[in-house]
């Protein structure tokens, strides 16, 4: 039996409704359980001595003074940790040519970025560990640094890792059609140079781990703030030489992640190694400076790009030359080449055109490693694509909406394969754009803009269409050799009182995973969501799975939950049929009761069925299956990724005297397929938009030429605050994926993907009559005043 | 660390309406005292330099950064944390509105956010959205994009004003 999602009056219709998150009341009452809230007997604390140099050899390490500090238990150098913890290499086989040297938990011999951990100090309190860490004397011998991206491959630039031969980590060229030929003869060719700044995630809860090696049980238990518990289990087992089955990773509440907490960090692995050596619990919680200098960074790209159009505004060719610098190492195990690879895959995404060339060049430098952060590569690809499309429209004197209409894939053309060789199962660019224009009253806004222009007020309207990669198959990591599951599982169990417990391999970091799963299980079995308890984040308890990243929680984890719930429903009805002497097909479960499917007449509450199965099984016919626990797994197989689409619009005002941009309003229409909980989807979109707005206007990690981090505090690295953010209007088109019964695709990254481009296009729309243009993010007042020629020095 | 930081100081205060006496290191921050010594883990340390607002607690009626105040400075003070505000029921409507409007995601900023908002709501009246946004500008939220929080505050202020008028 399938669920008729089109019928809102169907029984148990929880999928598609806004229901409250079961974990929210706990969090608003201060009853969350984050890693730093956990205290274990004999727990010690570790603080790290970090390299103050961007590149230096490590000489003698003097710990005598540090050992004198009261409370200090032990001090570890890189060589000592290396005795119990093997180094790792952040490469994937399918990213051909990607190279990176072995990386240790603590630097051995050489430090490669400011903030790299060098020495670990363990004490009975964090304060004592920090005090002692400040007294460790490391003899550094500074080495030449590589900090500039565009000259990293020049012959006179020092090679950061001599064993690697050069500073090139990865390069990929994709070519489709005849780009040069088309560019040579096209009606118009427009080019621009784009820059996206180095960002970091700024999770309010810093990275945290509590590791507890129990020699009596020969088991390592860790409490991690992570998105991927099973991946962490594998990594800790591999590098500490333990069987996977002897590592248990528990993930309770996580205070924000956005991709930051899906990676393997040297200091966290070192903490687990120290627990193993000291045979007691050890906690590490990053402080805010450590967050800025050691959480992964992202989005540090410079892109030269061209677009060719004909006289009617049809896109003939796009040519993209993308450069990114990833810091000193490719991050393990997901690698730091994925972001550049995504730029190649995603540029031009919404548009039906034939000739495409894109190259990404990924280089090493002496800075904090970069890796996957919310909407990986998307904000860059969308800014390049939508920036080019707007420039072409301006060149042609065409409205930005019109040029998009002429080029977006028609809504009835699917399935199609893009010039980047991405396969699209079903998208809704035109329907989404139409809905957006209606929501924002595009014509009305244009009239308002023109009227205000006459009064010297410069407002801009910016549009950005986008595609978003969600529900990844093993094509993302597994085929490259990483033990990162693309499959996910769910176990659903009915207890004697008729309540359900659902155990899922996907995780919760605030998105509402547990609410989403409770709705699906409730509908799948036939109970109300408050009868479902959801458990996630424990490798010893839940089915094996990938966790939550790349917008896979609802699409993959949700489908596994639906299938396991449907299986449990079937198992319940089989027992009920035997009890009620009725064919199972004639029965249904509605609101926690077994009912007659045709009439809806109540036959038996689930708690009565539970009572009989668990306590009076003797009264059931011998041999009747009574398996009230069912597990199902789900993996996508028809498409490597489930692409979604959407379109955003920004309305803003530029103060041409001060260069300050005021965001007035923002709109987003997106298509994530089946919507399970409208409120949660909307809030994912809004939160994502604001993260994108931060990148457009404020966020930029600064280094000097020596590789010193210049803005390592929240006062200096600006993120969006309430006062600067606009209200956002969110709309939806639903094109469910046919790969699953649920039909859900991801929604977590759409906001971040499109917002920076919409803002860029809106600013340029405001500046165009004044002759200015900005393409380097963030669009600070200084950059805007320079674009207007008001600052020239 | 100077020796003065190691000195221990006797303090007596009330926390969530209960008397507390303690001997604390002079360098102990209020938020660490609450979390580590009293087990009140509802207050969170986010940046430890007074910017993010996750550690906001109420001291003598005012919203204060728990990371910028020393425990020793709280001698004689009346301190309220989210645990106490919850138990006393004074922000139940606000908490309910946060859940209903999904004005929180990861929940890490939420205790400080609620404590700051309580201060705003206590002023009475129905603040404009811009005023709410301005008031919240001492509290970072990286998940929600703030709009749901503004909605929740607005709805509670309106409900309280209507109740007061009735």
UniProtKB/TrEMBL annotation, chain A:
Listed Gene3D superfamilies: Aldehyde oxidase/xanthine dehydrogenase, a/b hammerhead (3.90.1170.50), Aldehyde oxidase/xanthine dehydrogenase, molybdopterin binding domain (3.30.365.10)
Keywords: Molybdenum, Oxidoreductase
Highest rank taxon of the organism: Bacteria
Domain Aldehyde oxidase/xanthine dehydrogenase a/b hammerhead: 29-144
Coiled-coil blocks: none
A Pfam entry, by short name: MoCoBD_1
Region (Disordered): 1-22
Keyword check for Signal: no
Any GO molecular function: oxidoreductase activity
InterPro entries: Ald_Oxase/Xan_DH_a/b, Ald_Oxase/Xan_DH_a/b_sf, Ald_Oxase/xanthine_DH-like, AldOxase/xan_DH_MoCoBD1, AldOxase/xan_DH_MoCoBD2, AldOxase/xan_DH_Mopterin-bd_sf
Xref: SUPFAM superfamilies: CO dehydrogenase molybdoprotein N-domain-like, Molybdenum cofactor-binding domain
Name the record gives this protein: Carbon-monoxide dehydrogenase large subunit
Organism: Salinihabitans flavidus
From TrEMBL, chain B:
Top-level taxon in the UniProt lineage: Bacteria
GO molecular function, one term: metal ion binding
InterPro entries the record matches: 2Fe-2S-bd (IPR002888), 2Fe-2S-bd_dom_sf (IPR036884), 2Fe-2S_ferredoxin-like_sf (IPR036010), 2Fe-2S_ferredoxin-type (IPR001041), 2Fe2S_fd_BS (IPR006058), Beta-grasp_dom_sf (IPR012675), Diverse_Oxidoreductases (IPR051452)
Protein name per Swiss-Prot or TrEMBL: Carbon-monoxide dehydrogenase small subunit
One Pfam family linked to the record: Fer2
Annotated Gene3D superfamilies: 3.10.20.30, [2Fe-2S]-binding domain
Residue ranges of domain 2Fe-2S ferredoxin-type in the record: 9-85
UniProt keyword list: 2Fe-2S, Iron, Iron-sulfur, Metal-binding, Oxidoreductase
Keyword set includes Metal-binding: yes
């Amino acid at each position: 039996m399938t669920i008729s999602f089109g019928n809102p009056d169907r029984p148990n219709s929880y999928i598609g409704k806004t229901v409250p998150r079961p974990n929210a009341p706990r969090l608003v009452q201060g009853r969350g359980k984050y890693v730093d809230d956990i205290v274990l007997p004999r727990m010690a604390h570790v603080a790290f001595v970090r390299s103050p140099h961007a590149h230096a050899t490590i000489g003698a390490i003097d710990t005598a003074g540090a050992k004198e500090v009261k409370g200090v238990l032990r001090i570890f150098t890189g060589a000592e940790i290396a005795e119990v913890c093997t180094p790792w290499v952040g490469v994937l086989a399918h990213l051909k040519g990607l190279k990176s040297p072995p990386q240790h938990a603590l630097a051995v011999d050489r430090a490669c970025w400011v903030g790299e951990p060098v020495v670990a100090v363990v004490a009975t309190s964090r304060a004592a560990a920090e005090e002692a860490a400040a007294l460790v004397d490391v003899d550094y011998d500074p080495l030449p640094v590589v900090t500039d991206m565009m000259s990293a491959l020049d012959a006179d630039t020092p090679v950061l890792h001599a064993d690697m031969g050069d500073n090139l980590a990865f390069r990929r060229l994709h070519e489709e059609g005849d780009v040069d030929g088309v560019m040579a003869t096209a009606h118009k060719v427009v080019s621009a140079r784009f820059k996206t700044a180095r960002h970091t995630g700024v999770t309010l809860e810093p990275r945290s781990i509590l590791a507890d090696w129990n020699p009596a049980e020969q088991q390592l238990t860790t409490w991690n703030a992570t998105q991927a518990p099973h991946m962490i289990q594998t990594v800790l087992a591999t590098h500490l030489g333990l069987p996977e089955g002897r590592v248990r990773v528990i993930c309770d509440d996580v205070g924000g992640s956005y991709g930051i907490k899906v990676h393997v960090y040297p200091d966290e692995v070192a903490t687990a190694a120290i627990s193993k050596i000291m045979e007691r619990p050890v906690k590490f919680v990053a402080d805010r400076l450590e967050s800025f200098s050691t959480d992964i960074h992202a989005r540090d790209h410079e892109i030269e790009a061209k677009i060719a159009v004909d006289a009617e505004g049809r896109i003939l060719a796009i040519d993209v030359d993308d450069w990114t610098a990833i810091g000193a190492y490719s991050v393990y195990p997901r690698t730091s080449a994925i972001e550049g690879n995504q730029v190649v895959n995603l540029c031009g995404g919404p548009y039906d055109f034939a000739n495409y060339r894109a190259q990404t060049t990924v280089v090493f430098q002496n800075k904090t490693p970069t890796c996957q952060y919310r909407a990986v590569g998307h904000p860059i690809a969308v800014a390049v694509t939508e920036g080019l499309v707007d420039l072409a429209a301006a060149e042609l004197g065409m409205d930005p909406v019109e040029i998009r209409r002429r080029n977006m894939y028609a809504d009835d053309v699917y399935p199609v394969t893009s010039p980047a060789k991405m396969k699209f199962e079903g998208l809704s660019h035109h329907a989404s754009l139409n809905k957006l224009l209606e929501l924002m009253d595009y014509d009305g806004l244009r009239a308002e803009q023109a009227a205000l222009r006459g009064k010297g007020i410069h407002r801009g309207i910016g549009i950005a269409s986008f595609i978003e990669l969600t529900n990844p198959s093993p094509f993302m990591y597994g085929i490259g050799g990483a033990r990162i599951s693309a499959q996910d599982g769910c176990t659903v169990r009915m207890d004697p009182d008729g309540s359900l417990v659902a155990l899922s391999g996907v995780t919760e970091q605030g998105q509402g995973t547990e609410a989403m799963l409770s709705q699906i299980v409730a509908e799948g079995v036939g109970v109300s969501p408050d009868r479902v308890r959801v458990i996630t984040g424990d490798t010893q308890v839940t089915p094996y799975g990938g966790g939550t990243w790349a917008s896979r929680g609802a699409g993959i984890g949700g489908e596994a939950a639906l299938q396991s719930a449907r299986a449990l429903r079937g198992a319940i009805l089989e027992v009920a049929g035997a009890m009620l002497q009725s064919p199972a097909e004639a029965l249904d479960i509605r609101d926690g009761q077994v009912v007659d499917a045709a009439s809806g007449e109540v036959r038996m509450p689930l708690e009565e069925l539970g009572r009989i199965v668990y306590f009076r099984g003797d009264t059931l016919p011998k041999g009747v299956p009574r398996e009230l626990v069912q597990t199902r797994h789900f993996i996508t197989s028809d498409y490597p990724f489930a692409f979604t689409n959407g379109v955003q619009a920004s309305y803003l005002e530029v103060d041409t005297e001060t260069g300050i941009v005021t965001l007035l309003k923002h709109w987003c229409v997106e298509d994530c397929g089946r919507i399970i909980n409208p409120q949660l989807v909307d809030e994912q979109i809004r939160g994502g938009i604001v993260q994108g707005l931060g990148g457009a206007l404020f966020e930029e990690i600064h280094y000097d030429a020596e590789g010193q981090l210049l803005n390592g505090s929240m006062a200096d690295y600006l993120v969006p605050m309430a006062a600067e953010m606009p209200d956002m209007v969110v709309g939806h088109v639903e094109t469910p994926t046919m790969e699953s019964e649920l039909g859900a695709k991801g929604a977590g990254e759409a906001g971040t993907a499109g917002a920076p481009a919409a803002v860029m296009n809106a600013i340029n729309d405001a500046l165009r009559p004044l002759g200015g243009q900005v393409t380097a993010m963030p669009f600070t007042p200084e950059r805007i005043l320079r674009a207007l020629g008001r600052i020239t020095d | 660390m100077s020796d003065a930081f190691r000195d221990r100081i006797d303090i007596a205060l009330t926390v969530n309406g209960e008397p507390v006496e303690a001997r604390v290191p002079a360098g102990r921050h209020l938020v660490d005292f609450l979390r580590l010594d009293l087990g009140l883990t509802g207050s969170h340390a986010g940046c430890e330099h007074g910017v993010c607002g996750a550690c906001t607690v109420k001291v003598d009626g005012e919203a204060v950064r728990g990371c910028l105040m020393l425990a020793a400075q709280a001698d004689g003070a009346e301190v309220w944390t989210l645990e106490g505000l919850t138990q006393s029921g004074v922000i139940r409507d606000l908490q309910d509105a946060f859940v209903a409007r999904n004005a929180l995601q990861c929940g890490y900023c939420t205790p400080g956010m609620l404590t700051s908002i309580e201060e705003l709501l206590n002023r009475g009246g129905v603040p404009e959205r811009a005023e709410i946004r301005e008031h919240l500008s001492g509290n970072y939220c990286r998940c929600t994009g703030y709009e749901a929080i503004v909605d929740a505050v607005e709805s509670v202020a309106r409900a309280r004003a209507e109740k007061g008028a009735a």
